[in-house]
Amino acid sequence: MGFEKKLPEERIERVNQDQRDFFSGLLHVFDPPLPEGVPERLEQIVASADIVIGDVVLDVGTGTGILVPLIQHYESDTIFACDLSEAMLVRLKEQYPYARTIQGDVRGLPLADESIDVVFINACYPNIADKDKSFANIGRMMKPDGRMVISHPMGKAFIDLLKARSPFPLDDFPAQPEAEILLRPYGFEIYKFVDQPELYILLAVKRGGS
Ligand SMILES: C[S@@+](CC[C@H](N)C(=O)[O-])C[C@H]1O[C@@H](n2cnc3c(N)ncnc32)[C@H](O)[C@@H]1O
User: Which of 18, 66, 135, 144 could potentially form a cystine with 186 if both were Cys, beta carbons 3.0 to 4.6 Å apart?
Assistant: First the structure.
């Protein structure tokens, strides 16, 4: 079992186009100051991946790169920042020129097999339209024992507020038993699960290391 409920291809393309348009007009929402407590919770999210010096990190749905300086703090090697919206990535690059931006859907991201140590998906899991192909591709790109963090610094109930005004569908964050079933087919095991009113962190490790 995995992400069996799959949208038709033309619907996925439509949702991605709607998101591109929507987020390209919303850059200012991601500018500081962030809501109270969010900067500290973002630090907690990044800390949960246990980045070590030299790690190669991928930030999926990076937006304007809210996580990028927090990742850089750990002296990672390369930070790949992927997003559907070119406008988001232009803003990111102005602030964090050291990040390597890649425009496109994570499901088709062409990084090499087993080349990534850490993947972040912050405030983006609900937005990924083709979860089956996306998690298959993320699993392909990750090294064995690589860590993937799916998170939201406002907690999973925050999505209900967003759903009310979102022009495209948003999925809920999964509870732990559901997440185990969803991610297992892609080679992931859950190592840490935090579900607090204002913080969601799911840390999964790619099986296959010694
Ligand atoms: C709510 S924003 C979060 C941005 C950033 N992670 C943060 O925490 O501020 C979600 C972002 O995910 C991007 N996105 C949605 N689906 C995506 C996909 N399939 N592949 C890559 N990026 C995607 C959107 O373009 C948008 O910039």
Answer: 135
